[in-house]
User: Fold DUF4339 domain-containing protein from Flavobacterium nackdongense.
Amino acid sequence: MKKYFLHDGTESSGPFDFEELITQKITPKTPVWFEGMEKWKFAGEIPELQSIFKVSPPPLDIKKEEPIPQKTAVKLAKKQIFSLSRPTFFIICAAIVLLAGISYLKNLEETRSRELRIKNHKTEVENYQLELKEKEIEEQKKMQAEAEKAAAERALEQQKQAKTDRIIEIDKLIAISQSNLEASKRKLNNASGFKILRSSTEKKEELNALQLQIDSIYKDIDQLKIESNQLKLDLEKIP
Assistant:
């Protein structure tokens, strides 16, 4: 709705709608302005206001016009606040309150949105750090498993090498024992036929000692062979 402003030569008043403008008792020479006009114009120059002046005025009373009663002036003054009509003033106040409320809600929404972005960013950082930590743990587990595997392989290799070395050593000991066995057998044969400078008791004791030595060598050879066979079986079981 179009709003009009009036000027009495000293100060302006308004805005007034068309109905309120009729009550202002304007004349064709009253300066009027509304939004869209470049400058003030007389009311008589504005076509839409011509209907206001077509009404015939009442006869001029030569008597001095009585002043407006004070109560009426107060009522008229109450109808305006800061040169604005009461409805216009309240509309403006409501608009200001509405704009303030909209601004507050917008700021609140922006604050919540900013807090949400910060929270989401924090969550993303924590998730990324957790992911890195999990990868680090997986890498450590993988390295540990590889180290344990390598250690197990070294241990098996050492076992193989130790058993192989022992088998070689046993073969040497068996060879030595067999050589000693042959020597002991020769001594036994020689002692059986040698009779000079010894009694029958001494001969018997010598023969028994040589026989015990031969039996001990046989026993040692058998134990060495058993150990060697067991080591060979163990080597076959090692992957």
Observations:
- The beta strands are 4-7, 12-16, 31-34, 41-42, 80-81, 84-85.
- The helical segments are 18-23, 50-53, 70-78, 86-193, 200-237.
- Residues 201 and 207 are 10 Å apart (CA to CA).
- Residues 86-193 form the longest helix (108 residues).
